[in-house]
Amino acid sequence: MASKYQLSDDFYLKLSNKYDSAIKGEHILFNGDSAINEIEKIAITDENDNQSNTTATTTTTTTTIDVQSTLLKSLMHRPEIGTKPKIESSQNSNPFLKPEPELTIVDNYNDDEFKIVFNKFPVVPRHFMLITKEFKSQNTPLSPSELMATYKILQALKNQNQNQNQNQNSDQNTENWFAFYNCGPESGASQPHKHIQFMTLPSREQFKPYAETLFQNKEDDEQQQEPQKIEPKQNKDLPFAHFFIPIVADDVVDEEELPNLFSSILQKTLTELRETEQTHISYNFIMTLNYMLMIPRSKGKYGGDENKDEDEDKDKLGINSCGFQGLILCKNQELFDLVKSVGPLQILKDVGLPNSSHKTTTEYDY
Protein backbone atom coordinates (compact mmCIF):
# COMPACT_ATOMS: atom_id res chain seq x y z
CA MET A 1 0.00 0.00 0.00
CA ALA A 2 1.37 3.39 -1.02
CA SER A 3 2.07 5.92 1.71
CA LYS A 4 -0.27 8.89 1.83
CA TYR A 5 2.86 11.04 1.55
CA GLN A 6 4.07 9.37 -1.64
CA LEU A 7 4.40 11.64 -4.66
CA SER A 8 4.10 10.47 -8.24
CA ASP A 9 7.26 9.25 -9.95
CA ASP A 10 7.04 12.18 -12.36
CA PHE A 11 6.69 14.87 -9.67
CA TYR A 12 10.06 16.44 -10.45
CA LEU A 13 9.38 16.40 -14.20
CA LYS A 14 5.91 17.84 -13.67
CA LEU A 15 7.42 20.56 -11.47
CA SER A 16 9.88 21.59 -14.18
CA ASN A 17 7.39 21.47 -17.07
CA LYS A 18 4.68 23.31 -15.16
CA TYR A 19 7.12 26.03 -14.18
CA ASP A 20 8.20 26.59 -17.79
CA SER A 21 4.55 26.83 -18.81
CA ALA A 22 3.71 29.29 -16.01
CA ILE A 23 6.66 31.51 -16.93
CA LYS A 24 5.68 31.47 -20.60
CA GLY A 25 2.10 32.38 -19.71
CA GLU A 26 3.32 35.18 -17.39
CA HIS A 27 1.54 33.64 -14.41
CA ILE A 28 4.81 33.85 -12.45
CA LEU A 29 6.70 37.12 -12.08
CA PHE A 30 10.43 36.40 -12.04
CA ASN A 31 13.24 38.52 -13.47
CA GLY A 32 15.93 35.97 -12.81
CA ASP A 33 18.01 36.96 -15.83
CA SER A 34 18.50 40.42 -14.34
CA ALA A 35 19.32 39.19 -10.82
CA ILE A 36 22.69 40.20 -9.39
CA ASN A 37 24.26 37.68 -7.01
CA GLU A 38 27.35 38.31 -4.90
CA ILE A 39 28.78 35.63 -2.62
CA GLU A 40 30.88 36.80 0.31
CA LYS A 41 33.26 34.50 2.18
CA ILE A 42 33.13 35.51 5.85
CA ALA A 43 35.77 34.29 8.29
CA ILE A 44 34.47 32.98 11.61
CA THR A 45 37.11 32.68 14.34
CA ASP A 46 36.75 29.91 16.92
CA GLU A 47 38.86 30.05 20.08
CA ASN A 48 38.98 26.87 22.18
CA ASP A 49 40.54 26.62 25.62
CA ASN A 50 42.57 23.44 26.05
CA GLN A 51 43.29 22.28 29.58
CA SER A 52 45.92 19.73 30.64
CA ASN A 53 47.47 18.77 33.95
CA THR A 54 50.25 21.31 33.59
CA THR A 55 49.24 23.92 31.03
CA ALA A 56 46.31 25.83 29.64
CA THR A 57 46.42 26.86 25.99
CA THR A 58 44.07 28.48 23.53
CA THR A 59 43.69 27.13 20.02
CA THR A 60 42.34 29.48 17.36
CA THR A 61 40.81 28.15 14.17
CA THR A 62 39.16 30.07 11.36
CA THR A 63 36.21 28.78 9.38
CA THR A 64 34.79 30.47 6.31
CA ILE A 65 31.04 30.67 5.82
CA ASP A 66 29.19 31.75 2.69
CA VAL A 67 26.59 34.50 2.41
CA GLN A 68 24.98 35.39 -0.93
CA SER A 69 23.38 38.81 -1.44
CA THR A 70 20.89 38.97 -4.30
CA LEU A 71 19.42 42.03 -6.01
CA LEU A 72 16.09 40.90 -7.49
CA LYS A 73 13.77 43.76 -8.41
CA SER A 74 10.74 41.52 -9.02
CA LEU A 75 10.57 41.15 -5.22
CA MET A 76 9.17 44.69 -5.15
CA HIS A 77 5.84 43.19 -6.24
CA ARG A 78 5.72 40.59 -3.47
CA PRO A 79 3.22 41.36 -0.68
CA GLU A 80 4.48 41.62 2.88
CA ILE A 81 2.56 41.28 6.12
CA GLY A 82 2.25 44.72 7.67
CA THR A 83 2.13 46.68 4.40
CA LYS A 84 -1.68 46.54 4.19
CA PRO A 85 -4.68 45.82 6.42
CA LYS A 86 -4.79 42.42 8.07
CA ILE A 87 -5.71 39.71 5.59
CA GLU A 88 -8.69 37.67 6.68
CA SER A 89 -9.20 34.04 5.75
CA SER A 90 -11.86 34.69 3.13
CA GLN A 91 -12.08 33.61 -0.48
CA ASN A 92 -11.84 37.21 -1.67
CA SER A 93 -8.78 38.28 0.31
CA ASN A 94 -6.75 35.06 0.69
CA PRO A 95 -4.86 34.21 -2.54
CA PHE A 96 -4.16 30.67 -1.32
CA LEU A 97 -7.88 29.85 -1.26
CA LYS A 98 -8.37 30.89 -4.87
CA PRO A 99 -8.13 28.14 -7.50
CA GLU A 100 -5.10 28.92 -9.68
CA PRO A 101 -4.61 25.88 -11.93
CA GLU A 102 -1.77 27.55 -13.80
CA LEU A 103 0.24 27.66 -10.53
CA THR A 104 -0.90 24.32 -9.08
CA ILE A 105 1.53 21.41 -9.23
CA VAL A 106 -0.37 18.91 -7.05
CA ASP A 107 -3.97 19.75 -6.17
CA ASN A 108 -4.54 17.02 -3.57
CA TYR A 109 -1.72 15.80 -1.36
CA ASN A 110 -1.76 13.72 1.83
CA ASP A 111 -5.46 12.81 1.79
CA ASP A 112 -6.43 16.27 0.56
CA GLU A 113 -4.77 18.07 3.49
CA PHE A 114 -2.42 20.07 1.27
CA LYS A 115 -1.79 21.30 -2.22
CA ILE A 116 1.53 22.15 -3.82
CA VAL A 117 1.71 25.41 -5.78
CA PHE A 118 4.30 27.74 -7.24
CA ASN A 119 5.30 30.95 -5.51
CA LYS A 120 4.02 33.70 -7.79
CA PHE A 121 7.02 35.87 -6.85
CA PRO A 122 9.87 33.34 -6.81
CA VAL A 123 13.39 33.93 -5.59
CA VAL A 124 14.84 31.19 -7.79
CA PRO A 125 13.34 29.09 -10.63
CA ARG A 126 10.77 26.47 -9.51
CA HIS A 127 10.36 28.05 -6.08
CA PHE A 128 7.19 26.41 -4.75
CA MET A 129 5.07 26.00 -1.61
CA LEU A 130 3.20 23.38 0.38
CA ILE A 131 0.01 25.04 1.62
CA THR A 132 -2.87 23.82 3.75
CA LYS A 133 -6.10 23.53 1.77
CA GLU A 134 -8.09 24.94 4.67
CA PHE A 135 -6.97 28.13 6.35
CA LYS A 136 -4.45 27.62 9.15
CA SER A 137 -2.47 30.42 10.74
CA GLN A 138 1.16 31.06 9.85
CA ASN A 139 1.62 31.82 13.56
CA THR A 140 1.28 28.14 14.56
CA PRO A 141 4.04 25.50 14.85
CA LEU A 142 4.34 22.82 12.19
CA SER A 143 2.29 19.69 12.83
CA PRO A 144 3.59 16.10 12.50
CA SER A 145 1.90 15.72 9.10
CA GLU A 146 3.32 19.05 7.89
CA LEU A 147 6.83 18.02 8.91
CA MET A 148 6.51 14.59 7.34
CA ALA A 149 5.09 16.01 4.11
CA THR A 150 7.99 18.46 3.96
CA TYR A 151 10.54 15.69 4.43
CA LYS A 152 8.93 13.45 1.80
CA ILE A 153 8.86 16.28 -0.74
CA LEU A 154 12.56 16.96 -0.18
CA GLN A 155 13.24 13.24 -0.52
CA ALA A 156 11.31 13.01 -3.81
CA LEU A 157 13.12 16.05 -5.22
CA LYS A 158 16.52 14.54 -4.48
CA ASN A 159 15.75 11.02 -5.69
CA GLN A 160 13.94 12.03 -8.87
CA ASN A 161 16.57 14.63 -9.77
CA GLN A 162 19.29 11.99 -9.35
CA ASN A 163 17.33 9.51 -11.48
CA GLN A 164 16.84 12.10 -14.21
CA ASN A 165 20.55 12.87 -14.31
CA GLN A 166 21.37 9.16 -14.55
CA ASN A 167 18.82 8.52 -17.29
CA GLN A 168 20.14 11.44 -19.31
CA ASN A 169 23.78 10.53 -18.62
CA SER A 170 24.14 14.03 -17.24
CA ASP A 171 27.21 15.04 -15.26
CA GLN A 172 25.23 17.76 -13.46
CA ASN A 173 25.32 17.66 -9.68
CA THR A 174 22.13 16.85 -7.80
CA GLU A 175 20.29 20.04 -6.88
CA ASN A 176 20.49 21.14 -3.26
CA TRP A 177 16.90 21.76 -2.10
CA PHE A 178 15.81 23.07 1.28
CA ALA A 179 12.47 23.91 2.89
CA PHE A 180 11.67 26.84 5.15
CA TYR A 181 8.85 28.15 7.29
CA ASN A 182 8.48 31.75 8.47
CA CYS A 183 6.43 31.63 11.67
CA GLY A 184 5.02 34.65 13.46
CA PRO A 185 4.55 38.38 12.82
CA GLU A 186 8.29 39.23 12.88
CA SER A 187 9.53 36.26 10.84
CA GLY A 188 9.35 37.82 7.38
CA ALA A 189 6.23 35.89 6.35
CA SER A 190 4.40 37.25 3.30
CA GLN A 191 0.98 35.63 3.90
CA PRO A 192 -0.96 34.67 7.05
CA HIS A 193 -2.18 31.39 5.51
CA LYS A 194 0.11 28.53 6.54
CA HIS A 195 2.69 27.68 3.88
CA ILE A 196 6.07 25.97 3.75
CA GLN A 197 8.41 26.99 0.93
CA PHE A 198 10.93 25.00 -1.12
CA MET A 199 13.95 26.41 -2.95
CA THR A 200 17.26 25.35 -4.41
CA LEU A 201 20.54 26.66 -3.05
CA PRO A 202 23.34 27.92 -5.30
CA SER A 203 25.62 25.17 -6.60
CA ARG A 204 27.82 23.46 -4.01
CA GLU A 205 30.93 24.59 -5.88
CA GLN A 206 29.97 28.19 -5.07
CA PHE A 207 28.01 28.08 -1.84
CA LYS A 208 27.61 26.00 1.31
CA PRO A 209 25.13 26.92 4.08
CA TYR A 210 26.78 27.81 7.37
CA ALA A 211 24.84 25.06 9.13
CA GLU A 212 26.68 22.49 7.05
CA THR A 213 30.03 24.22 7.48
CA LEU A 214 29.92 24.85 11.23
CA PHE A 215 28.13 21.71 12.37
CA GLN A 216 29.43 19.10 9.92
CA ASN A 217 31.76 17.33 12.37
CA LYS A 218 29.16 17.30 15.14
CA GLU A 219 26.58 15.96 12.72
CA ASP A 220 28.87 13.12 11.64
CA ASP A 221 29.50 12.16 15.28
CA GLU A 222 25.84 12.22 16.20
CA GLN A 223 24.74 10.01 13.33
CA GLN A 224 25.93 7.16 15.55
CA GLN A 225 23.71 8.18 18.47
CA GLU A 226 20.13 7.21 19.15
CA PRO A 227 17.85 10.04 17.89
CA GLN A 228 16.31 10.71 21.31
CA LYS A 229 19.77 11.42 22.76
CA ILE A 230 20.74 14.09 20.24
CA GLU A 231 20.60 17.62 21.66
CA PRO A 232 20.23 20.92 19.75
CA LYS A 233 23.51 22.72 19.14
CA GLN A 234 24.48 26.39 18.83
CA ASN A 235 27.79 27.67 17.46
CA LYS A 236 29.20 30.29 19.82
CA ASP A 237 30.97 32.19 17.03
CA LEU A 238 27.83 33.32 15.21
CA PRO A 239 26.38 36.57 16.61
CA PHE A 240 22.74 35.44 16.70
CA ALA A 241 20.87 32.69 18.56
CA HIS A 242 20.21 29.58 16.44
CA PHE A 243 19.44 25.95 17.19
CA PHE A 244 20.66 23.11 14.99
CA ILE A 245 19.79 19.42 15.19
CA PRO A 246 20.73 16.68 12.71
CA ILE A 247 18.26 14.29 11.11
CA VAL A 248 19.57 10.75 11.20
CA ALA A 249 19.38 8.12 8.43
CA ASP A 250 16.24 7.82 6.29
CA ASP A 251 15.12 4.51 7.75
CA VAL A 252 14.32 6.00 11.16
CA VAL A 253 12.55 9.14 9.94
CA ASP A 254 8.85 8.91 10.69
CA GLU A 255 5.89 10.92 11.98
CA GLU A 256 7.11 10.51 15.55
CA GLU A 257 10.80 11.26 15.08
CA LEU A 258 10.47 14.50 13.09
CA PRO A 259 8.12 16.17 15.61
CA ASN A 260 10.48 15.18 18.43
CA LEU A 261 13.39 16.90 16.70
CA PHE A 262 11.25 19.92 15.87
CA SER A 263 9.99 20.18 19.45
CA SER A 264 13.51 20.14 20.85
CA ILE A 265 14.60 23.21 18.89
CA LEU A 266 11.22 24.92 19.33
CA GLN A 267 11.61 24.58 23.10
CA LYS A 268 14.99 26.32 22.93
CA THR A 269 13.56 29.04 20.72
CA LEU A 270 10.57 29.72 22.96
CA THR A 271 12.88 29.92 25.97
CA GLU A 272 14.99 32.59 24.23
CA LEU A 273 11.91 34.58 23.24
CA ARG A 274 10.59 34.44 26.80
CA GLU A 275 13.89 35.32 28.48
CA THR A 276 14.46 38.30 26.18
CA GLU A 277 10.90 39.49 26.89
CA GLN A 278 9.69 39.51 23.29
CA THR A 279 6.04 40.49 22.90
CA HIS A 280 5.50 38.06 20.01
CA ILE A 281 6.46 34.51 19.02
CA SER A 282 8.40 34.66 15.76
CA TYR A 283 11.05 32.35 14.36
CA ASN A 284 12.51 31.00 11.15
CA PHE A 285 12.69 27.27 10.51
CA ILE A 286 14.91 25.61 7.91
CA MET A 287 14.84 21.93 7.02
CA THR A 288 16.88 19.68 4.73
CA LEU A 289 17.13 15.91 4.56
CA ASN A 290 20.07 16.17 6.96
CA TYR A 291 19.17 18.76 9.58
CA MET A 292 16.72 21.21 11.11
CA LEU A 293 17.64 24.78 12.07
CA MET A 294 15.56 27.31 14.00
CA ILE A 295 16.28 30.99 14.64
CA PRO A 296 14.26 33.14 17.10
CA ARG A 297 13.47 36.63 15.80
CA SER A 298 13.28 40.04 17.45
CA LYS A 299 12.00 41.90 14.40
CA GLY A 300 11.15 41.28 10.76
CA LYS A 301 13.12 44.07 9.09
CA TYR A 302 16.46 45.82 9.37
CA GLY A 303 17.10 49.56 9.10
CA GLY A 304 14.90 52.38 7.96
CA ASP A 305 13.26 55.07 10.04
CA GLU A 306 11.67 53.65 13.19
CA ASN A 307 9.27 56.62 13.32
CA LYS A 308 7.69 55.79 9.96
CA ASP A 309 4.98 53.20 9.53
CA GLU A 310 5.36 50.25 7.16
CA ASP A 311 3.59 51.93 4.24
CA GLU A 312 5.79 55.04 4.38
CA ASP A 313 9.15 53.40 4.95
CA LYS A 314 10.62 51.67 1.89
CA ASP A 315 14.15 51.66 3.27
CA LYS A 316 13.85 48.55 5.43
CA LEU A 317 15.38 45.22 4.48
CA GLY A 318 13.00 42.32 5.06
CA ILE A 319 14.68 39.18 6.39
CA ASN A 320 13.02 35.78 6.40
CA SER A 321 14.36 32.22 6.66
CA CYS A 322 16.38 32.67 3.47
CA GLY A 323 18.50 35.30 5.20
CA PHE A 324 19.37 32.86 7.98
CA GLN A 325 20.26 30.26 5.37
CA GLY A 326 22.84 32.74 4.09
CA LEU A 327 20.70 34.15 1.27
CA ILE A 328 20.05 37.90 1.70
CA LEU A 329 17.33 39.09 -0.69
CA CYS A 330 17.21 42.75 -1.77
CA LYS A 331 14.46 44.33 -3.86
CA ASN A 332 16.34 47.51 -4.80
CA GLN A 333 19.86 48.85 -5.23
CA GLU A 334 19.74 50.87 -2.01
CA LEU A 335 19.13 47.76 0.10
CA PHE A 336 21.76 45.82 -1.85
CA ASP A 337 24.30 48.55 -1.05
CA LEU A 338 23.13 48.59 2.58
CA VAL A 339 24.00 44.91 3.01
CA LYS A 340 27.49 45.50 1.64
CA SER A 341 28.13 48.50 3.88
CA VAL A 342 26.71 47.10 7.14
CA GLY A 343 27.65 43.45 6.65
CA PRO A 344 25.32 40.42 6.52
CA LEU A 345 26.14 39.07 9.99
CA GLN A 346 25.48 42.44 11.64
CA ILE A 347 22.08 42.56 9.94
CA LEU A 348 21.20 39.02 11.03
CA LYS A 349 22.33 39.82 14.57
CA ASP A 350 20.09 42.89 14.66
CA VAL A 351 16.90 41.08 13.56
CA GLY A 352 17.61 37.96 15.63
CA LEU A 353 18.43 37.50 19.30
CA PRO A 354 21.88 37.40 20.95
CA ASN A 355 23.81 34.14 20.79
CA SER A 356 23.02 32.17 23.94
CA SER A 357 25.49 29.29 23.70
CA HIS A 358 27.09 30.40 26.97
CA LYS A 359 23.89 29.72 28.92
CA THR A 360 23.45 26.56 30.96
CA THR A 361 20.46 24.51 29.88
CA THR A 362 18.13 23.27 32.60
CA GLU A 363 15.16 20.95 32.60
CA TYR A 364 13.00 23.98 33.32
CA ASP A 365 13.72 25.68 29.99
CA TYR A 366 10.36 26.80 28.68
From TrEMBL:
It comes from the Eukaryota. One of its GO terms (molecular function) is ATP:ADP adenylyltransferase activity. Pfam families: Ap4A_phos_N (PF19327), ATP_transf (PF09830). Residues 237-354 form the ATP adenylyltransferase C-terminal domain. InterPro entries: Ap4A_phos1/2-like (IPR043171), Ap4A_phos1/2_N (IPR045759), ATP_adenylylTrfase_C (IPR019200), Fork-head_TF_regulator (IPR053364), HIT-like_sf (IPR036265). One of its GO terms (biological process) is nucleoside catabolic process. Residues 51-206 form the Ap4A phosphorylase 1/2 N-terminal domain. PANTHER family: DIADENOSINE 5',5'''-P1,P4-TETRAPHOSPHATE PHOSPHORYLASE (PTHR42746), DIADENOSINE 5',5'''-P1,P4-TETRAPHOSPHATE PHOSPHORYLASE 2-RELATED (PTHR42746:SF2). This is Uncharacterized protein. It comes from Candida albicans (strain WO-1) (Yeast).
